[in-house]
């Protein structure tokens, strides 16, 4: 972990949601979330490895994707947080992914809002986001979070739009 920044808070609450660090037991819903991408469901063994990696990376780097649980219903609905992604530890990316059944309820915006606050509290000055050009819902969340479109890059799957938020 770089000494320049404080570690991010890994436990947070909003009006409707609890955000937490990954536990091995999250593997069972995590694999269902990945399956919604339409390219198959990871085995439980792979999913356990993945969530353990996410947890360990968080503890090492001081930034994390966090699980999102609805407090009233008690169910896990996805994740949101900070990753290096295509950017850097100093200026990480915000990322989120929720189950389709809960889309359109403001949950991504609610979770991402406290993640932005948590990024500020680590001492960071800038966050990025990289989103496929077709992803209107994701751009709308970014707009609500006051990110601004910055530039595009291209890979074999097409355009990636970079947006930025100065903190
Ligand atoms: C992106 C994602 C996390 C948004 O989650 P969510 O909880 O539905 O987001 P919110 O409800 O907070 O906000 C979504 C906004 O997008 C809008 N929206 C949804 N689909 C849209 C579309 N096709 N065109 C335009 N706006 C759209 C909603 O109306 C809402 O805006 P509003 O509050 O002004 O009405 C969710 O769609 C998702 O998990 N997608 C799959 C994974 C993904 O793409 N992650 C981002 C990768 S960069």
Description of the structure:
It comes from Fictibacillus phosphorivorans. This is Acetyltransferase. Keywords: Transferase. With 167 residues, the chain is an alpha+beta fold. It has one domain (12-166): Gcn5-related N-acetyltransferase (GNAT) (Aminopeptidase). 31% of the residues lie in helices and 30% in strands. The protein has helices spanning 27-35, 44-61, 107-121, 136-144, and strands spanning 12-13, 17-20, 65-70, 76-83, 93-98, 126-132, 148-155, 158-166. The strands form two sheets. It has a five-stranded antiparallel β-sheet with strand order 1-2-3-4-5, with helices on both faces. A three-stranded antiparallel β-sheet has the order 6-8-7, with helices on one face. Helix 1 packs across helix 2. The longest helix is centred in the N-terminal third of the chain and has 18 residues, at 44-61. The two termini are 21 Å apart. The mean pLDDT is 97. It binds coenzyme A (COA). Residues 96-98, 103-109, 131, 135-138, 140-141 line the site of coenzyme A.
Task: For the structure shown, list the relevant keywords.
167 residues; alpha+beta; Aminopeptidase; three-stranded antiparallel β-sheet; 8 strands; 30% strand; binds coenzyme A
Short description:
The chain has helices spanning 27-35, 44-61, 107-121, 136-144, and strands at 12-13, 17-20, 65-70, 76-83, 93-98, 126-132, 148-155, 158-166. The protein has 167 residues and is of the alpha+beta class.
The number of distinct β-strands equals 8
* Rg, alpha carbons: 15 Å
Largest sheet: 5 strands, antiparallel
Bound molecule types: coenzyme A
Strand order of the largest sheet: 1-2-3-4-5
Return the CATH topology.
Aminopeptidase
Principal-axes shape call = globular
The CATH C-level class name: Alpha Beta
The CATH level-2 architecture is identified as 3-Layer(aba) Sandwich
